[in-house]
Amino acid sequence: MENVIIIGGGPAGLAASIYNARAGLKPLVIAGSPPGGQLILTSEVENYPGFESIMGQELIDKMRKHALKFGVRFIDENVIKVDFSKRPFKIYLPNNEARHRVFSSTSPPKGGSPKSLTQKQVSSLLFSKSVIIATGAKAIWLGLESEQRLRGKGVSACA
C-alpha cells in the first residue's frame, strides 16, 4: 500500500514528488514511458526559472536526480487504468510483464547526490491512499507535411 502515487514524470509530477518526499510520504512516481513527458522532446528550454538555456532532457535528468535525493521512487511505465471508486485507489500497469521495476536511490533520503540506483519488483496492480494526476500536455500538430521536418528550426508547438 502506497501513501501517494503520482501519475506523471514531467515537471509537475517531479515537483509534487519532491514536496511529498520532504513531507515524509514516500511517494511513488509512475513516470510514463519514456519518462519525462513532453519536456524530453524539447530541444532548448529558455523559459524555465533558474535556467537561461538548458536542453529538455538535461532539465528532466536534473529534476529526477533532485527527487531521488529525497527518496522518491520511480516506475517508468504508463498507467493503463485507475479505479477511484473506493479507497484504497487502484492503479493498473500494463500486464506485458508480470512485475515492474521500481528505481530508487541508495543514498539516505536527505543525503547528498544519489550514489546508485536500486531496483525492486512490483506487480501490475498498485494500491494507494492518495493519487496525484500530473499527466501534463501533448503538442497538437497541424499535420502539415513539412512541420515535423522543420521542428526545432522555427516550427514549434510552444504557445
From TrEMBL:
<keyword id="KW-0285">Flavoprotein</keyword>
<protein>
    <recommendedName>
        <fullName>FAD/NAD(P)-binding domain-containing protein</fullName>
    </recommendedName>
</protein>
<dbReference type="GO" id="GO:0016491">
    <property type="term" value="F:oxidoreductase activity"/>
</dbReference>
<keyword id="KW-0560">Oxidoreductase</keyword>
<dbReference type="InterPro" id="IPR050097">
    <property type="entry name" value="Ferredoxin-NADP_redctase_2"/>
</dbReference>
<dbReference type="InterPro" id="IPR023753">
    <property type="entry name" value="FAD/NAD-binding_dom"/>
</dbReference>
<feature type="domain" description="FAD/NAD(P)-binding">
    <location>
        <begin position="3"/>
        <end position="158"/>
    </location>
</feature>
<dbReference type="Pfam" id="PF07992">
    <property type="entry name" value="Pyr_redox_2"/>
</dbReference>
<dbReference type="InterPro" id="IPR036188">
    <property type="entry name" value="FAD/NAD-bd_sf"/>
</dbReference>
